[in-house]
User: What shape does this take?
Amino acid sequence: MTREPTSTDADADATLHHVATLEAFDEAERIIVDVKGREIAVFDVDGQFYAVLNYCTHQGGPLCEGLLDGTLTMTDDWEWTYSCEGTIVSCPWHGWEFDITTGEHLAHSDYRVPTYDVVVQDEQVYITE
Assistant: This one.
């Protein structure tokens, strides 16, 4: 499987935290790692990588252990349509939904979870900080 890396060059001042090899993502759509005491999940969505804090702002649940899917949205013509396929994670505790590409809660823009940049270098996946 050929993947397009989210980024190929890390900022010279950025600290890289190793997540896994690209090959490891052949078997998993997400990998959760500990970075300085924080659990961060890295998701592979069709070769694009997104990293999100594994913490739901609702009641502290393990957000990134929930279902990764899409969502229903309403068009201007008042019709329901399925969108954002593979980029919406639902907290397994109470179903709060967040967009892994932005960290934003779908229903309440006041809520968001931290996101992190992902770098791919030499077949290795890193989170930058």
Summary: The first strand starts at residue 16 and ends at 21. The chain has a mean pLDDT of 87. The chain has one domain: 16-128. The chain has no helices and ten strands.
